[in-house]
């Protein structure tokens, strides 16, 4: 088979780490029965410099025409002072919005070789492998009414409203249940139904979708504040977590630090299945463009490589090849190679391309 991928390296370390992915792609083409039709384009600061906008409509169209989008990162301090529409970060916001990417998948997985990087005790995180599914286009970040009003006495009030509809909850719940079937078959749904009406509806709808479509999956419910506590106390009790935009924002950042290594963590954002059977999807590391180390050849390419493995798994159903890449990364870490960000005593410090070499060889 042949697949169309849109590759958007972006700014800072983006192009450096994307280069290592391109070598993994070449390996797959040479060794597996698959070919990739890659289209590269500029986004973020790189696009601002060339075209005066953070992303062109043409790039959005190319994204629609692809099987999946592989994204690096955007952001460059050079553009920090300009207005909102001219900020590099608008590129990723616009892609999410235009492609309707409503479900953000953030795995938090602890590699045995990096167990010491966790901020928690090794006993608590050894073997940790959880997946947080965050709703990303609804909830309190977008609900109406919103704004800052001036009251009669001249004082002000700021308003945000959490709104969730049945269909918004159903579609993200389905993503979570589907994922659970490919993992340990457990979903924990997180809200605050004790104090929020939107949370009450969330719980009701997730329960309905479960009963109607996924009775084989084990479903539990947890209040968000308790979930934050449980993620630190005993994170391995979870498999898939599904939650709204606000709680998912906080809990996924918290969960990323259970693994302790920003340069290791991939993510996926999925949209709705279209009439032609395609589902728009974008894969990117959770870290940013790391301007402080850009151009030095020392960035860790693993989050970007693992983002590509997620692309194979969730967009192309190439499960064996995704496993192969994840295993290669694990073996390379076990062999003692480390980029600077994950370096520890007694290990061999290497740069971006040597790490890429090692992964391809493995
Ligand atoms: P950052 O994630 O870029 O960097 C935070 C720290 O982690 C830095 O010290 C960096 O050197 C290090 N780091 C990150 N990724 C690394 C890797 N692969 N290997 C080794 N070290 C790594 O976050 P920061 O500094 O807050 O943001 C920098 C720029 O990136 C900003 O313009 C920000 O808006 C943007 N950003 C973009 C994102 C995206 O494209 N989705 C996400 C987060 C930030
Ligand atoms: Mg956040």
TrEMBL record:
Residues that coordinate or bind NAD(+): 288-300
PROSITE patterns for this protein: IDH_IMDH
Keyword check for Acetylation: no
Gene Ontology cellular component list: cytosol
Source organism, top-level taxon: Bacteria
Binding site for Mg(2+): 225, 249, 253
Domain Isopropylmalate dehydrogenase-like: 4-359
Requisite cofactors: Mg(2+); Mn(2+)
Single GO BP term: L-leucine biosynthetic process
Keywords of the record: Amino-acid biosynthesis, Branched-chain amino acid biosynthesis, Cytoplasm, Leucine biosynthesis, Magnesium, Manganese, Metal-binding, NAD, Oxidoreductase
Enzyme Commission number(s): 1.1.1.85
Subcellular location: Cytoplasm
Cofactor note (record): Binds 1 Mg(2+) or Mn(2+) ion per subunit.
Recorded catalytic activity of this chain's protein: (2R,3S)-3-isopropylmalate + NAD(+) = 4-methyl-2-oxopentanoate + CO2 + NADH
The protein's assembly and partners: Homodimer.
Function: Catalyzes the oxidation of 3-carboxy-2-hydroxy-4-methylpentanoate (3-isopropylmalate) to 3-carboxy-4-methyl-2-oxopentanoate. The product decarboxylates to 4-methyl-2 oxopentanoate.
HAMAP family attached to this UniProt entry: LeuB_type1 (MF_01033)
Record protein name field: 3-isopropylmalate dehydrogenase
